[in-house]
Amino acid sequence: MRLIKLIIVLLPFLMPVLVQADDYKLDALSIDHPWARATAPGAPVGGGYMSIRNTGDKPDRLVGGSVTFANRLEIHESSMVEGMMRMQRLDDGLLVPAGGTVVLKPGSFHLMFNGLQRRLVEGDSETVTLEFERAGTIELEFSVKGPGEMGPDQDGEAMDHGSMMHE
């Protein structure tokens, strides 16, 4: 009886932790910890990040998606070229190898939310629909983290998209 009372008392405090598990499953894909960075008022773009693990024996490919808070979602890769950080859209999508994991993180692969229709506010969550070549579509809730956040278990470098060369 004491245990039940304790659980009832602690449940409101545990719910945010349980809800933030942020793990999604679609066919052989596991998508973990989707998140976005908060944006400044009037910012034209935002970024989305997560880990995608493929436990299957065939590769899959993230080919696109949609959002209601921006004009379009694109898949991008950032890399250092001749001492300058460059970002390019991946028109063919992002390969998720069989038995492999792809991490979307600042300074590397990421989702670009172009033409933001509203500010991404720390503490909020935003719905993002992703489309995979084999597995199909899935709707995710992206937690909005602080502007300098690097994400869970991610060690990319903070980026200023405004000063980056876009191809």
Topology:
Layout: H1 2-19, E1 23-26, E2 29-37, E3 45-54, E4 60-67, E5 70-81, E6 84-89, E7 94-96, E8 101-104, E9 109-116, E10 125-132, E11 136-145, E12 165-166
Parallel strand pairs: 2-11, 6-12
Antiparallel strand pairs: 1-2, 2-3, 3-8, 3-9, 4-7, 4-10, 5-6, 5-9, 10-11
Describe this structure in words.
The structure is a single chain. With 167 residues, the protein is mostly beta strands. It has one domain (22-147): PCu(A)C copper chaperone (Immunoglobulin-like). The protein is 11% helix and 50% strand. It contains one helix and twelve strands, in the order αββββββββββββ. It has one helix spanning 2-19; strands at 23-26, 29-37, 45-54, 60-67, 70-81, 84-89, 94-96, 101-104, 109-116, 125-132, 136-145, 165-166. Strands 1, 2, 3, 4, 5, 6, 7, 8, 9, 10, 11 and 12 form a twelve-stranded mixed beta sheet that branches. A hairpin with a 2-residue loop joins strand 5 and strand 6. The protein starts with a helix and ends with a strand.
CATH topology: Immunoglobulin-like
Q: Which homologous superfamily in CATH is the superfamily?
A: PCu(A)C copper chaperone
Mean pLDDT over the full residue set:
84
Number of helices: 1
How many structural units, i.e. domains? 1
Compute the number of strand runs.
12
Compute the CA-based radius of gyration: 17 Å
The CATH class label is Mainly Beta
What's the main sheet like?
Answer: 12 strands, mixed
Helical fraction equals: 10-25%
What overall form do the CA principal axes indicate?
globular
Distance between the termini: 63 Å
| SSE class | mainly beta
Order of helices and strands: HEEEEEEEEEEEE
Strand fraction: over 45%
Residue stretches low in confidence (pLDDT < 50, at least 5 long) are: 13-21, 154-167
Q: What is the CATH architecture annotation? A: Sandwich
